[in-house]
Each structure stands twice: as structure tokens, then as C-alpha cells.
Specification:
CATH class of chain A: Alpha Beta
Strand content of chain A: 15-25%
Strand order of the largest sheet of chain A: 1-4
Largest interface: B-C, 23 and 14 residues
Number of strands of chain B: 9
Distance between the termini of chain A: 12 Å
Shape of chain A: globular
Oligomer: heterotrimer
CATH topology of the largest domain in chain B: Rossmann fold
Helix content of chain B: 40-55%
Number of strands of chain A: 4
Number of domains of chain A: 1
Helix content of chain A: 10-25%
Chains: A alpha+beta (70), B alpha/beta (413), C mainly alpha (195)
Order of helices and strands of chain A: EHEEHE
């Protein structure tokens, strides 16, 4: 399976923080509550958490994308 | 900005470059035709025009410097294109686009026509800032003179602001939304106005297209450097005797460009090159060529080629603080890190400018903010600001040390 | 005798599920507002509030479905299938039943748009979601207008508590925005004039 990457749409994001709660290994919050995403592709063991975080975002600002570069 | 300042056109000793801003050019279309000749017939020339552009080595003159030929290919390939001329010039330090539109609007309109043919577009727009009354009036009368030839070119006025001229902000406005950057992808060349591939080019780039269509790629490459051919407009201001917009070949040393403006009005401390998102260049590096390659050597980049000279006796940190504060206020306010982080960066710089015991924590804070802001916005606003901040800390490192002990180079704090 | 017992049972279920639906919708609205306000019960992560909002919304669909189905099957209610969705066509108390139908339509729109949210424009989803503030009063007035319990004390108590709850939640929602972004006024900063 090709590597997946998390990306946030910073315009839609409104600092709800659910992503960081559901996928703490992948998402950290900055001092204003906005997500800082871990670099690189999502490791297999965290994919499920990544999907939950994407589904839970109240603004649908978090995206899980397929990209060829790892 | 209010009405563009009255820049003089100066007498040049050496061989002048007068491609875009010739000295003796009247303002009517007839004057234009007398000076440049008429545009060759464009019909059916789309492929030939695009290949000409790729051979020419022309790059975008708006600040990003993207190869124009490649951009046109990408838009033409997709079909159903629209052309947008970017004359907004949101950068307050820059006046070159306003000068070009005031002095040579017909060349820009020619360029729009060339671009439209090259990408198969049936519509063209020229965008301006709402408070740029002068350019609007000039373009309106220029369009009126050639209504039959340019039925499908329209003018659009955008709310004045620093980010209004950003590519996706332009497209967003033309689509009926706010003049604020949008999330990418898609980029305008893929899906822009009304979902169509949109070619956004700076007015100076388009003026060069008009010249290329007339005189060809070999002529274009007669000036400039082999890797960076052609001439560029630069805005020179600050501590120079006669601030002006000048046209020079790429590769002209920075001090020669400044000499065209009467030279320095006093000893210089540093020069801000490339606009508010640019970088500071030390006075001792003023012989650096005005080119991407040349500036890269001193950690800089061409940008929109605004050149602002900071004299001795001014405080580089205070000046940088002012600019960062301005940039923070011009955030579109869409992305949290930019909206909150840039004012925090300005606050930290203010503490730096004040000097004394607050310096070390301020420096630490700046480092922390740099890590938190890079690439976390929908556009390059936070990154451009960070670039300016980092360059100030490097070039004014001595000033930082002076401030630490409560001293300052600036005569006024 | 059996028919009478059955129809009485249906009638009770109809009324009961109607009241439970109203209560559930009140709680769902409250949780929606709490999500927007970034509130969560102490020591619980905030996604719990949002998750509960979604789960209870789906649960309320069950109770609303039960309510409208029993209404159709109740021989005394004179509510045809059409009257569930099309307002004001019921044989008896068309106005009050019609308000219920409108409320059902809005709830369906809310649930449907939320289920396919990723395929819709954010503006459309948001617009429909604001209609929730219409769905709830419609359901309440429907209950007050058509319910044969409307005279009873306990129903009135339920109705009053729900109204009080929603008014309070509404005030909370309207009072200031949740921590997030204000949109900057254009040119909040003085333009930098340069020599």
C-alpha cells in the first residue's frame, strides 16, 4: 500500500484539537491549539488512529493523502 | 498606497536599457505603435508562441520567478483557460508595476493578448488594487483606444492589502469570494477562475511577452546573463539621492543600480532586497549582481526587486520590527499559526529593539516561533516574514550585541 | 378486546417515543453547542463531546422513527404515511401534525447531510446544520399542539425544562465565539508610508 500522509487545511482548521487527542503520536498542538503534524508518512501501526482523527475533525480540516514520496 | 509617487526618469550615462520604460514614450496607442511597431498577427500562433517563450528563458517578474514558458505550457495543456494580469502590487515598497502601467499600459495589454493566444484563452483580466486610481484610469483609457481589438479584456479592482496580490487570492476574488489566499492544491493553473485553468502573470512579465512576440528570443537574450536573460524593473528607495523605478539588465551590480538613482545619500548600513519578504544585504556586499544567482550567494533572492537602503545611523532592528508588525497586521487571518504567531514575532522583535535584559528571552522566543510557524499557513506569508526576521538577526548581529548592553546605532529609538 | 389493547399500546408507545425524541433532541442540541464551545466533562477529551453528539443524534433517529411509525399504525391518530413528511395533510390536527412533519424533514436533512459530509461543500453542510435551531422548536410546538398529554403536569414540566435548557444553551452559543479565529478587519494596521 502506498504511503499515507496527514495534512491539515490551515484555513478550515479552528483549533478544536480532537486530532491531537485521537492521534497523539502523529499530532501535537502548538501554543495556540493548532496542530503540528509529525513529518513523513504515517507508520502502519498508527493508520487507524489517523483515520479516526480525520473522521472526527469538526471542520473536516484534516486530510489523509496518498503520496509517492515517503 | 495613495497616488504613486512622482518618480523621475533619469539620464543614464551608460547604454540605457529601455525596453519596458523607454524615455520618450507618449501615452497614446499611436505613440506606442510608433515606438514598438505593431504586434504581429497572433492567430494560430499558440504553439509557436509557447515554444518562443520556453527558448527565451523568461521567468516571472512578480517575485516568484517561475519559468514563464513552463507555466504557459501547463495552462495550455488543460484547455479552457483564462488569463489574469496581476497589477495589484500589494508590496508597499514596490512601485514598478504602477510605473509600468502609468507609462506603458499598451505594452501590458499587448502582453495579455499574446498570453491569451498562447494558452487558448478567450477572456483576460487585468487586476488592480482598489486605491490605485491612477492605473485604473490609464488602463481604462488605453482599453477605450483599442476597444475593437480587446473586447474580452476586463479590469478588476481588488481590496487593497498585502496578500491581495497573491495568486490564489486574486482568483478567489474573481470567483466572487474574498481576496484571500486559498488552500492548495488546486493551484490556479490547474483550477482557478470558475474552475478553469488560470494563467496568473505579473504585468511586467506580460509586457516582456509583448516584446518577445515582436522581436524574438535572440533579441531578448541580448541583455542579462545567459542563465537569467532580459531586463527587469527595480524600485529603489531609502537613503538614495533620487528614489526611482529603474530598468536594468539582470546581473547589474546592486551599487550600479543605486548609482542610477543618484547614488547613496550617505553611508549605507544595509539594503533590503526583494521586498518585505526579502532579505537584508550588508553594505559591504553591495557589488553583488542583481540576479537570482548573485543574490543567492549572500543568502538573498530577487523577489519583486525592491531595493531599500538603510543608512548608517538607523537601527536595522527597529526597522525590521516595523515591517514585521506591518506584516502581522496584513495577515489574512485565516490560519491560526500566522494570525497568532506573527504578532508574537513582532512583540519579540520589539523587545529586541528595546534592548537590555529582555534580549535573551526575546531571542529564545524568536527561535521557538520560527519552529512553530514555518510552512503552517495556506500561503507563504508566515514563511516570508520568518525569512526577513532570520536575515535581520544575521546581518544585524552586531546591532543585537549593542542592544544587549543598552546601546543602539539608531539616532532615534 | 385485543385490538383495543393493542391500539392503546401503540398509542402509549407513540406518545412515549415522541417525548423521548424531544428530550434526546434537546440533549443532542446541547452537545452540539458544547462541541462548538470546546467543552468536555472534566478530565475527558473533547472528542467525546462531539462523538456523543453524533451517537445520540443517530439514536434519536430511532426514536423519531418509532414515533412516526406508531403514529401511522395507530387507528385513532389518522396520520397517513404522507403526513409524516408532508406537512399539513393529516386528517386530524393537520397543523400540529404538520409541524412534526416539518421537524422530521429537517432532522432527515441534518442526518443525511452529516452522513455524506465529505462529499458536500462546507457551506451547504453548515447551512443545513443551522436549521437544527428550527427543527427543535417545531418538534416542541408539535408536541404541545397535538399531544393528548398536553394538559398533564408532567408533560408541561418536561416541555418547560426543555425550553429552559435550549434557551440557556442558545445564550451560551451566542455569547462570544469559541476560541478560534476572528476575521481580521481589512487594514487594521496603519498603512506603512515610505519616503
Amino acid at each position: 500500500m502506498s504511503p499515507r500522509h496527514l495534512r491539515v487545511n490551515p484555513i478550515l482548521c479552528d483549533a478544536y484539537g480532537h486530532c491531537a487527542e485521537l492521534a497523539p503520536e502523529l499530532v501535537e498542538l502548538d501554543e495556540w491549539g493548532y496542530p503540528i503534524l509529525r513529518e513523513g508518512s504515517v507508520p502502519k501501526e498508527h493508520l487507524a488512529a489517523a483515520r479516526r482523527a480525520v473522521a472526527a475533525c469538526p471542520r473536516l480540516a484534516l486530510l489523509l493523502e496518498r503520496r509517492r514520496d515517503g | 498606497m495613495t497616488a504613486a509617487p512622482a518618480f523621475e526618469r533619469l539620464d543614464l550615462g551608460a547604454e540605457p536599457v529601455e525596453r519596458l520604460l523607454p524615455r520618450l514614450l507618449g501615452t497614446s496607442w499611436n505613440d506606442q505603435l510608433a515606438r514598438y511597431g505593431s504586434l504581429p498577427s497572433l492567430r494560430g500562433q499558440a504553439d509557436a508562441l509557447r515554444s518562443l517563450l520556453s527558448r527565451s528563458g523568461l521567468t516571472g517578474r512578480g517575485g516568484a520567478g517561475f519559468p514563464t514558458g513552463a507555466k504557459l505550457e501547463a495552462v495550455a495543456r488543460r484547455g479552457g483557460a483564462v488569463v489574469v494580469a496581476n497589477g495589484v502590487e500589494g508590496e508597499p515598497a514596490s512601485a514598478k508595476d504602477k510605473m509600468l502601467l502609468a507609462r506603458n499600459p499598451h505594452l501590458v495589454l499587448d502582453g495579455v493578448l499574446v498570453a491569451m493566444e498562447a494558452v487558448g484563452a478567450k477572456e483576460g483580466f487585468v487586476t488592480l488594487a482598489a486605491d490605485d486610481e491612477r492605473s485604473f484610469v490609464r488602463l481604462e483609457s488605453a482599453l477605450a483606444e483599442r476597444r475593437r481589438e480587446t473586447p474580452s479584456i476586463l479590469l478588476a479592482r481588488l481590496p487593497t492589502g498585502f496578500v491581495s496580490g497573491e495568486e490564489s487570492a486574486l482568483v478567489s476574488w474573481l470567483n466572487g469570494s474574498e481576496a484571500k489566499p486559498t488552500f492548495k492544491p488546486p493551484r490556479p493553473f490547474e483550477r482557478g477562475m470558475n474552475g478553469r485553468p488560470t494563467l496568473v502573470q505579473n504585468v511586467e512579465t506580460l509586457a516582456n511577452l509583448a516584446l518577445l512576440a515582436r522581436y524574438g528570443a535572440e533579441w531578448f537574450r541580448e541583455v542579462g546573463t545567459p542563465d537569467e536573460p532580459g531586463s527587469v524593473l527595480a524600485t529603489v528607495r531609502g537613503a538614495v539621492r533620487r528614489p526611482a523605478v529603474v530598468e536594468v539588465e539582470l546581473g547589474t551590480p546592486l551599487d550600479a543600480v543605486i548609482d542610477l538613482c543618484g547614488g547613496l545619500s550617505g553611508p549605507a548600513q544595509a539594503v533590503l532586497v526583494g521586498g518585505y519578504f526579502g532579505t537584508w544585504i550588508r553594505a559591504r556586499d553591495l557589488d553583488v549582481p542583481l540576479s537570482q544567482a548573485g543574490l543567492a550567494h549572500v543568502g538573498g533572492s530577487l523577489g519583486a526587486r525592491t531595493i531599500v537602503v538603510l543608512p548608517e545611523g538607523a537601527c536595522g532592528l527597529a526597522e525590521t520590527t516595523r515591517i514585521i508588525r506591518y506584516l502581522a497586521g496584513e495577515s489574512a487571518g485565516q490560519c491560526g499559526p500566522c494570525f497568532f504567531g506573527l504578532p508574537a514575532l513582532a512583540d519579540a522583535f520589539e523587545r529586541l529593539a528595546r534592548g537590555g535584559v529582555e534580549m535573551q528571552p526575546a531571542l529564545a522566543r524568536i527561535g521557538q516561533l520560527e519552529r512553530q510557524l514555518a510552512r503552517r499557513g495556506a500561503c507563504s506569508h508566515p514563511d516570508g516574514t520568518l525569512r526577513l526576521a532570520a536575515s535581520a538577526l544575521a546581518v544585524f548581529a552586531d546591532e543585537v550585541e549593542r542592544h544587549r548592553v543598552g546601546a543602539c546605532s539608531g539616532s532615534a529609538r | 378486546m385485543n385490538v383495543l389493547v393493542t391500539s392503546k399500546a401503540i398509542w402509549y408507545v407513540m406518545r412515549g417515543s415522541g417525548i423521548v425524541s424531544l428530550l434526546l433532541l434537546t440533549v443532542v442540541a446541547g452537545l452540539g453547542i458544547a462541541t462548538n464551545k470546546r467543552w468536555a466533562p472534566r478530565r475527558m477529551p473533547r472528542f467525546v463531546t462531539a462523538g456523543l453528539h453524533r451517537s445520540l443524534a443517530l439514536l434519536s433517529v430511532l426514536f423519531v422513527s418509532l414515533h412516526v411509525l406508531t403514529a401511522v399504525f395507530d387507528p385513532y391518530a389518522v396520520v397517513g404515511v404522507a403526513a409524516i413528511f408532508v406537512p399539513f395533510v393529516a386528517g386530524r390536527s393537520p397543523f400540529a401534525v404538520g409541524l412534526g412533519a416539518l421537524s422530521v424533514d429537517l432532522v432527515i436533512a441534518l442526518i443525511a447531510t452529516s452522513l455524506v459530509r465529505t462529499r458536500l461543500s462546507p457551506r451547504l453542510w453548515r447551512g443545513v446544520h443551522w436549521l437544527a435551531y428550527a427543527a427543535w422548536p417545531l418538534a416542541l410546538v408539535h408536541g404541545l399542539g397535538v399531544g393528548t398529554d398536553k394538559g398533564t403536569f408532567w408533560f408541561q414540566a418536561v416541555a418547560v425544562s426543555c425550553v429552559a435548557g435550549v434557551l440557556a444553551l442558545g445564550a451560551w452559543r451566542l455569547r462570544g465565539r469559541a476560541p478560534g479565529l476572528k476575521r481580521l478587519e481589512p487594514h487594521a494596521t496603519p498603512r506603512l508610508e515610505r519616503a
